[in-house]
Amino acid sequence: MAFNGTWKIDRNENYEKFMEAMGINVMKRKLGAHDNLKMTIQQDGNKFTVKESSNFRTIDIEFTLGVNFEYSLADGTELTGSWNMEGDKLVGTFTRKDNGKALKAHREIIGDELVQTYIYEGVEAKRIFKRG
């Protein structure tokens, strides 16, 4: 339940390179790096509800650990996959619908921050959130 609460983006590491690897154009990359993303996470056993709100959209995502679901990124890229718990980490394995390539993600609490890591085509990026 450590993930419960509201998290506001604080900083990014290598996020523009990650978006470039994902095929996101330069304009959207510039906007995406400054999206003011805020996530509210509520865990109830194996079920999670995540509300994402940014400069571009507000979306509610519900998922159950180990159960595949569909998700669209802010740029419209559609994914299918699932989240699982591995120790204290939420680990996501997703497949892009347009090209079948894998996108991995994980969320973990480090100190008082939520660190969300993305890996796509060998490019790793981090988005670091603070409780808001």
Give a short summary of the structure:
Belongs to the calycin superfamily. Fatty-acid binding protein (FABP) family. A hairpin with a 2-residue loop joins strand 2 and strand 3 (about 45-55).
Give an overview in words.
- Belongs to the calycin superfamily. Fatty-acid binding protein (FABP) family.
- Its main location: cytoplasm.
- Monomer.
- The chain is mainly beta.
- The protein has a single domain (5-131), classed as Lipocalin (Beta Barrel).
- It has two helices and ten strands.
- It has helices spanning 15-21, 26-32, and strands at residues 5-13, 38-44, 47-53, 58-64, 69-72, 78-86, 89-96, 102-110, 113-120, 123-131.
- The protein has a ten-stranded antiparallel β-sheet with strand order 4-3-2-1-10-9-8-7-6-5.
- Strand 6 and strand 7 form a beta hairpin.
- It starts with a strand and ends with a strand.
- The model has no long low-confidence stretch (mean pLDDT 95).
Number of DSSP-assigned strands: 10
**Spans of at least 5 consecutive residues with low confidence:** none
How much of the sequence lies in strands comes to over 45%
Alpha-carbon distance between the two ends: 17 Å
User: Which strand order does the major sheet show?
Assistant: 4-3-2-1-10-9-8-7-6-5
Question: What is the name of the CATH topology?
Answer: Lipocalin
| Count of structural domains | 1
CATH homologous superfamily heading: Calycin beta-barrel core domain
Number of helices: 2
Class based on secondary structure composition and strand pairing: mainly beta
Query: What are the secondary-structure elements, in order, as H or E?
Result: EHHEEEEEEEEE
Mean pLDDT: 95
Principal-axis shape equals globular
The radius of gyration is: 14 Å
Largest sheet: 10 strands, antiparallel
Helix residue percentage: 10-25%
Protein name: Fatty acid-binding protein, intestinal
Subunit structure: Monomer.
Subcellular location: Cytoplasm
Keywords: Acetylation, Cytoplasm, Lipid-binding, Transport
